Amino acid sequence: MRLKHIEISGFKSFAKKATLTFTAPVTCVVGPNGSGKSNVVESFRFVLGEQSMKSMRGKSGADLIFRGGNNAPKLSRAAVSITFDNTDKVFSFNTEGTSNAPVLFDEVTFTRELFADGTSRYLMNGTEIRLKQMVELLSSVNIGTSSHHIISQGEADGILRASARDRREMLEDALGLKVYHFRIKESENKLAKSTETLKEVQSLRRELAPHLNFLKKQVEKVEKGRAIREELEGLLVQYLATERANLRDEDNRLAQAHSLIANKKSQLEAVLETLPEETSHDSTAGERSAFASQLQVIREKRRGVEARISRLEGMVEAQRQMLIAQTKQQQHVAKAITFEADEYHTLLNDLEVLLRNIREAQSLETTKTFVQKIEHILTQLKNREEKIPVQAAPVIDTGIHDTALELEDLERELKALIGQEESVQRQLQAAEQQRESAMLATQEATRKRYEIIGEIKQCEAELQILAVSKSAFMERKAAVDTELKESGFLFGPSFLHTLESTQPVPQFDIHTQKRNIDRLKIRLDEHAGIGNEVVTEYESTVERDAFLAREVTDIEASIRNLETLIIDLKRVLDEQFTSGVKVINERFGDFFKTMFGGGNAFLSITLEKKRRRRMTEEEEIEAAGEDPEQDEDQFERGIEVHVNLPEKKVKELNMLSGGERSLVSIALLFAISQVNPPPFLVLDETDAALDEANSRRYGDMIELLAEYSQLIVVTHNRETMSRASVLYGVTLGTDGGSKLLSIKFDEAVKVAK
Length: 753
Ligand code: ATP
Description:
Elements: E1 2-9, E2 18-21, E3 26-30, H1 37-47, E4 77-85, E5 92-93, E6 101-102, E7 107-115, E8 120-124, E9 127-129, H2 131-139, E10 150-151, H3 158-161, H4 164-174, H5 178-274, H6 285-330, H7 338-360, H8 364-387, H9 398-491, H10 493-500, H11 510-526, H12 533-596, E11 600-609, H13 617-625, E12 635-644, H14 658-675, E13 680-684, H15 692-706, E14 710-714, H16 718-722, E15 726-732, E16 738-743, H17 745-752
Parallel strand pairs: 3-14, 3-15, 10-13, 13-14
Antiparallel strand pairs: 1-2, 1-4, 4-7, 5-6, 7-8, 8-9, 11-12, 15-16
Adenosine-5'-triphosphate (ATP) binds next to helix 1.
């Protein structure tokens, strides 16, 4: 990698295009004061992306564009191009990771254009790139942004005047450690961002938690509801299957019982129809009353006959009295017939007794017996009549005879009447018997009737009970139908399908299970109203929460990684810085000795409080004991320069002479540039303060340095010029524009003078 040339156009005093070609290790730029040499140096700063106007001696971008002169117009654009040889492909893009991507061009030209409005454009090989990309590409070839490789006029001892912290930065840049700072900063930014994101994600999770909790409870409710629903469905299927079968049985039972009882009832009613009414006609009544009146007539007749008999008997009595009187008259007439008369008397007495008996006789039988006896007595009386002697005075008995005859007739008549009475009596008895049996038959029929009516009543009562059962059945059926309808509505057609294929459950406690069903319905109602979208929302929320949890884990992991990375980067930075300083110190000591012909100089790493107060010795010791990584916010590293001039006791930098300061600075700058040699070094009159002897030493060092970096040296010093292979003279034209021309050493010496 080699610097090939720089092309300046419209930049500061270079109105027209001027080109410096770097073909030798050391190129000198010479020219009178104010010709534009420093503008050349600044063109390097400019093209490499310098943002500080001050370091290019301007206030605004416009100050860097040729502002015109005598006969030369003001320009509106300044452009500087710097070209490097890249055949060894050292330029590379930093690809944020493991490997860098090399730039494959053999030649790399960076161009910066500046416009009147102060805006800049950066190009690489004619293609616009961003400043950051250019800076990265340059840092890949050790051309850092701190421009320690471009030392401006009067800035040589800048490194001595700088603060410890600035010095450290300069060193870090020279050591190529800026990239670590960049990466640390980048990682810290990422860390801050990750920490912020973590907080945000954690806060999101916290915000999500109550909602998630709420949804979880809702989902549990939904699941509980689902379980209840399933239980209810199962129970309802069993209930309905069983109850429907029960109802079918009950319906059959009721129908059978009804038809049985109804049949029985109609049979009973038919039987009842056949039974005589209770108030049936007494068929014997007429007959019996005819017999009774016949009997009455007969009895009347009999009483007539009996009255007549009694009258006749009276007559017989009277005649007997007369006879007795006649007899008493004749007693002494006919003792012979006394006996018969007594007998007769006895017979008469008997007759009287009998007549009395007849009168008193109650029954026909006894009457008959008395009549027979009377007939016997009459027969005896006839016989006595024949035996009565004739001599006895005749008893007048004509009346008796007639009366007896009449009596006989009457008795016959009586006999006939008694016969008639008996016959009528018998007929009456038969009629009564008939009536009685008819009555008995009626009674039996009535009893039977009442029995049947009772049975019919029983049937009716049973039918009523059946009707009550039927209405209870109907209610049950209606309840089952409603349940079925509701279930179909609640569970859909599949429920009915399942129901059809479900067998009734044996020993299913309908009442208990119905209560369970109702209880489940109430509980289902309590769980109702939460839609399935809650489940979806819950799932998506769980997913979101899980996603956030993963985010948290990932971010925490990345925070840990970043923290580790930052620690590692800082450690590497620290190690490399320490070892870099060590190497610089070695070179610094050597250069110092060369420059001063002895003595010693070195750099030390300091730890300072950030507020830039110098620490007391005790504080330094204390701070040295602390872990800077732990207290990095409070402490920062710095670089101190220590010198020990030969033959002198001077150790303080501010006690050095101007020349000495120049020498120390140059020694240090050279030492720094030796560690990571940049491709080129631009030195603007860094040798101005040197005396002849020191100019020679300076010249020696220039040659030494040129082995590692190309040198572009602006100088008035003859000694320095003598070390250059190529010399450029800068002159200021009458138009106010600077011109460059390649010159020989002698010309250069002349120009310089
Ligand atoms: P010395 O040897 O005294 O250090 P020098 O050669 O380094 O001088 P410079 O400082 O580079 O000279 O150049 C200064 C010159 O550049 C001045 O004459 C100044 O007028 C001129 N100059 C600066 N800016 C512009 C500009 N924008 N347009 C035109 N000329 C400019």
